[in-house]
Amino acid sequence: MPVFVAYMTQTDIEADFKRILEELQAYKQKDCSFIKGHILGSMCTAPHQIAKKAYDMFLDSNLGDPRLFSGSKKIEQNYLDFIGKMLHGPQGHSGQVVSGGTEGNITAIWLARRRSEGNNIIVPASAHFSFQKIASLMGLKIKSIPLTQDYVMDIEVLKENINKKTVAVVGIAGSTELGAVDPIEEISQLCIDNEVFCHVDAAFGGFVLPFLKELNYPIPQWDFQLPGVSSISVDAHKMGYAAIPLGLLMVRESKWWSNVGVKALCIDEKIQTSLLGTRSAGPVAAGYAVARLLGFEGYKKVIEGCMQTTFHLKRRIEQIGLELVMKPTMNVAGIKVKDVDATVDALAKQGWFVNRISHLSCIRLVMMPHVTIEVIDEFVDVLEKCVGGEKGR
Ligand SMILES: *Cc1c(COP(=O)(O)O)cnc(C)c1O
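A: This is the predicted complex of the input protein with pyridoxal-5'-phosphate.
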């Protein structure tokens, strides 16, 4: 192995390599694997093969230093162009790569905060827990808006709460728990009327909704086509088939970035607007490689497959006398069960991993690409045994 470590001999290194890799292998064995398909409760999946190759190629390139890594910077820009198109970014929009939904949300609210005198953010009760971190980091209050029967933000309550003290209103395009899409059109309009920043958290839905729309699913408007939408965050390491950590934050007007920019003289960048400094270009190269390989058409096929699996799940669990919390909008489903803890634990004992959502009395499944119709058939048989006594009760 052509490895150079100054103070070691070649023989030392080879022996150590083997020993250390064996140690890692033993740890890896403890991890669940997407390939076996029994992970039903994750919004991530095994990255596409090409993602692994690309990641490896750019492992040591630092996106935080574009002077040294101008090729990586170009990949980032190409990828952002792809995402900009996907989200119908208007003239003058611009984005940046982030580590995921959490950093995307933090950056969006940070930007909004710098443009506002307010002291609170408004989110639906279904918002991701990252907004609690944001409120704590930035000293903001959270106004949590209750949901309607359809598990989306109640617009009437939003109307009573939005005012000059509002830093931003957050709408969720694909909730983490059920995949529900808030009425972004109404939220966008209220934000225009009140001159408030409107952030759309599409961490999960960003790589689902654009393709569902093209496949003629009844998806209401939710992206930059709505004039009040100020920013959108999207995770590529969820439905983008990319490798962790990769997300994107897109804003309507490029000039807004200066609100969070700092001078970064030592690395020749006029201003740096990313929350993080040193960042590997590996994930971006990986995400971009997948986007190049699949293209919009490829993603459409992936999503359509996931939706078919979701409908199959719905039919199968209804056959065993169970039901979903709500009709699936995307490839996320909550299955109502009487005893959530007992069901989750019984499934885990059999090697099946789902999420526990106690306040909705359900278990949550995400039909990611590794979850096939065959996997669902196997799962439903196990589930039926786990909930055994509770049918027809
Ligand atoms: C997953 C998720 C997040 C957080 O994203 P991370 O990549 O885990 O930081 C935020 N919002 C929603 C709606 C999500 O589904």
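The radius of gyration is 22 Å. The chain has eleven helices and twelve strands.
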